[in-house]
């Protein structure tokens, strides 16, 4: 047994021996690094000494260039070497703190000697570089630790399955190089260690979970089979954690051909980006690329519209139900997320191909250089059987030719002469020098003037050429608007309420606003006309909070990343956007070809105490199946208050108590940004509270106040639901938002309300919470 003193002594001795080896390795590396550093400094100082610069003739110039190149290569090789050592030293320092966290003894079938495998965040060899003192947790054999309890066990390698018997499984807690505890486990990963980890306080950064990865999470981390790996996991089941460890795993598995530059994570908001940013560096890996879908859309829409973000749309859906267009917009949001709308756009593209594409004039100095009508005629003069994007390319070529002709003609214009007279001295000298280098021309005044004119016109035409190359002559705004106009109002495939949807959309587009629900269709239509943009750099894409994406968005992502493997993680119970009401999302299996998808389901929640999970599972349909990890705390409390003033007094007292009880992050979660702002102004005089809005990129410990949709993906020691009254959370479609808010709590959940509590609590068993008057 692990508490056997002899065993503990043996393990402590081994730990010391390993630490010793780490020290020795570090010393060696430092010596080597010192040498390299000197080399680098020396090379930089003497870079030009060994190079004979000679550019008198071509041959000499080539020789000079090649010796510069050689010298630069030498320098960069030394620099790379230095960086590598720096990285290795950082790994050793991590191992010095916590060398390993697990051990398995495994006897392979038909072998007489067992393998003793110690698992840590990186591997370490012995002095002779023969035996592994520590195995990286991502090594094939390490899988045993996550997948089996003692008994028959097996693991996969490149060569096939290795079978045998696991004779021992042991866990260690090693901190600052000290053995804090160790225990042998029977079950997969002992509850003890997990309980200890989960009982800790929340941080403003996520932590790595390598020591306690659960079997089903390990399957997600190591899955390499399918193009689409789809994970439906209940709140707090470790989806984001598994995704990040999976990134680390992939970087290890494919270390020679994959770098962090080839992996991208789409996350729900910028705050989440900073929340997860420390996990990979903690594991010694570089962070993957991170973005939000909105960032991608924004970049592409550019300045053409005032683009709405998903949070503004959410705010509208939650607060504007009294506005006259509300229903029309809601229907529009749902329709525009669907594949039906995508099909309608496809039909529209065929219609455009005939003769309805809209172009912009190409203008110069306030005059039309090439009219939209001419561009249109050019487009329609081309063979109809050629695809639109190819025809656009041909139009582009012709426009560039035409522009070259116009550029020549422009040189004779009066303004060019005027501008050449107005050139300042520097500009003139520059031109003059250029002319001088052109043999025998400097005394030819006419020639000089012509060249000057050429240069001036060229400078002015450059932005036009650039715009043409970027296909700016297509009027995408007008084309999208036309889709909703009288001209094409009656589509065979248009939905019942198409007129209403058109009315609302046109109103927004005319104000140069692009509602969030129109952003994806707008870009899709643009791509159908210009040709698709394809990203080949990203080889693995992770989409967290996948329930927020519509089938239409997925169609666009699939086109953008045709060869990318995707890991798609989400929870249908947290689908809070209006387009997901009774509609498929990125988690729906019908979006994927059967043979290309692998689906995993996580039912156990690790984040919250058993009492919080028992409460929150009553909030959603099918919640009975959600399992709680067995960690105890207080039951959530519902506190009735008389009015807003009373509510505030109670919240202030509760938040302060939670902090003094040792909770480090306390979140007051409101329904909307509007409610958050109002509450913040009323509370801030008496409570040290930080306001979080969509522009907040980081948060620190203490009390924060934020709307529920920004709390997505994040967790807090204690959560206060600001106002769970029936007047605030009254509609069925707010259920998932309410569930998302409550499931952010790790240890403590308190809900306040005025007069009557929300009807969304109706199915929560009364013994799952305490109810009191404040
Ligand atoms: N195997 C594990 N060992 C230790 N901690 C774990 C493990 N799995 C999950 N956790 C912890 O549970 C919490 C929730 O994990 P995570 O945020 O990854 O869940 P999620 O499924 O993405 O949640 P949500 O959908 O609610 O945002 C985190 O604190 C995480 O560290």
UniProtKB/TrEMBL annotation:
It comes from the Bacteria. ATP binds at residues 233-240. InterPro entries: DNA_helicase_UvrD/REP, HelD_bacillota, P-loop_NTPase, UvrD-like_ATP-bd. Keywords: ATP-binding, Helicase, Hydrolase, Nucleotide-binding. Residues 212-609 form the UvrD-like helicase ATP-binding domain. One of its GO terms (molecular function) is 3'-5' DNA helicase activity. SUPFAM superfamilies: P-loop containing nucleoside triphosphate hydrolases (SSF52540). This is AAA family ATPase. It comes from Metabacillus arenae. The lineage of its organism: Bacteria, Bacillati, Bacillota, Bacilli, Bacillales.
């Amino acid at each position: 047994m692990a508490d056997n003193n002899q065993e503990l002594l043996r393990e402590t001795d081994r730990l010391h021996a390993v630490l010793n080896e780490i020290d020795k390795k570090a010393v060696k590396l430092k010596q080597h690094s010192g040498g390299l550093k000197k080399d680098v400094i020396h090379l930089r100082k003497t870079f030009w000494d060994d190079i004979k610069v000679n550019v008198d003739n071509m041959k000499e110039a080539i020789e000079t260039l090649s010796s510069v190149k050689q010298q630069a290569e030498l320098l960069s090789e030394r620099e790379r070497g230095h960086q590598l050592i720096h990285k290795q030293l950082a790994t050793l320092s991590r191992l010095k703190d916590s060398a390993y966290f697990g051990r398995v003894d495994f006897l392979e079938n038909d072998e007489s000697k067992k393998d003793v495998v110690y698992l840590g965040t990186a591997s370490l060899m012995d002095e002779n570089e023969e035996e592994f003192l520590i195995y990286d947790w991502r090594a094939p054999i390490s899988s045993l630790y996550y997948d089996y309890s003692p008994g028959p066990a097996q693991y996969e390698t490149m060569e096939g399955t290795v079978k045998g018997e696991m004779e021992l499984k042991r866990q260690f807690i090693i901190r600052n190089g000290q053995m804090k505890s160790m225990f042998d486990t029977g079950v997969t990963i002992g509850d003890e260690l997990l309980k200890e980890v989960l009982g800790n306080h929340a941080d403003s950064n996520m932590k790595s979970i390598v020591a306690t990865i659960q079997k089903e999470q390990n399957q997600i981390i190591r899955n390499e089979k399918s193009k689409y790996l789809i994970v439906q996991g209940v709140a707090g089941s470790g989806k984001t954690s598994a995704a990040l460890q999976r990134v680390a795993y992939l970087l290890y598995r494919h270390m020679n051909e994959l770098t962090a530059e080839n992996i991208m994570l789409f996350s729900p908001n910028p705050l989440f980006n900073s929340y997860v940013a420390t996990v990979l560096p903690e594991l010694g890996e570089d962070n993957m690329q991170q973005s939000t879908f909105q960032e991608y859309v924004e970049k592409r829409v550019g300045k053409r519209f005032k683009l709405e973000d998903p949070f503004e749309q959410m705010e509208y859906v939650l607060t504007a139900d009294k506005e006259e267009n509300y229903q029309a917009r809601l229907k529009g949001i749902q329709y525009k997320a669907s594949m039906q709308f995508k099909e309608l756009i496809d039909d529209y593209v065929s219609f455009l191909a005939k003769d309805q594409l809209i172009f912009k004039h190409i203008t110069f100095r306030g005059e039309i250089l090439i009219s939209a009508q001419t561009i249109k005629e050019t487009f329609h003069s081309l063979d109809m059987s050629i695809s639109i994007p190819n025809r656009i390319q041909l139009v582009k070529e012709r426009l560039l030719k035409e522009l070259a002709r116009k550029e020549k003609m422009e040189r004779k214009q009066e303004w060019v002469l005027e501008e050449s007279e107005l050139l300042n001295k520097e500009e003139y000298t520059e031109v003059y020098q250029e002319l001088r280098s052109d043999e025998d021309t400097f005394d030819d005044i006419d020639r000089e003037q012509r060249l000057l004119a050429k240069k001036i016109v060229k400078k002015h035409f450059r932005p036009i050429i650039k715009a043409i190359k970027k296909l700016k002559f297509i009027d995408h705004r007008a084309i999208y608007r036309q889709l909703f106009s009288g001209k094409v109002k009656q589509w065979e495939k248009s939905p019942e309420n198409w007129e209403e949807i058109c009315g609302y959309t046109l109103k927004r587009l005319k104000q140069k606003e692009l509602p969030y629900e129109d952003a994806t269709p707008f870009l899709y239509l643009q791509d159908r006309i210009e040709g698709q943009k394809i990203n080949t750099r990203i080889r693995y894409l992770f989409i967290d909070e996948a329930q927020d994406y519509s089938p239409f968005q997925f169609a666009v992502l699939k086109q953008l990343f045709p060869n990318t493997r995707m890991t798609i993680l989400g929870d249908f119970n947290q689908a809070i956007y209006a387009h997901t009401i009774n509609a498929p999302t990125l988690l729906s299996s019908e979006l994927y070809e059967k043979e290309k998808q692998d689906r995993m389901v996580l039912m156990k929640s690790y984040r919250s105490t058993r009492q919080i999970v028992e409460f929150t599972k009553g909030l959603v349909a099918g919640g009975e199946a959600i399992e709680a990890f067995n960690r105890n705390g207080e039951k959530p409390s519902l506190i009735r208050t008389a009015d807003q003033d009373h509510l505030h007094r109670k919240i202030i007292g509760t938040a302060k108590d939670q902090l003094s009880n040792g909770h480090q992050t306390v979140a007051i979660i409101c329904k909307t940004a509007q409610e958050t702002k109002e509450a913040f102004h009323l509370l801030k005089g008496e409570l040290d509270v930080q306001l979080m809005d969509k522009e907040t990129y980081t948060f620190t410990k203490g009390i924060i106040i934020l709307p529920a949709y920004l709390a997505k993906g994040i967790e807090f020691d204690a959560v206060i639901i600001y106002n769970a009254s029936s007047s605030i959370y009254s509609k069925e479609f707010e259920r998932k938002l309410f569930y998302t808010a409550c499931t952010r709590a790790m240890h403590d959940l308190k809900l306040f309300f005025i007069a009557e509590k929300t009807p969304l609590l109706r199915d929560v068993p009364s013994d799952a919470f305490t109810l009191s008057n404040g």
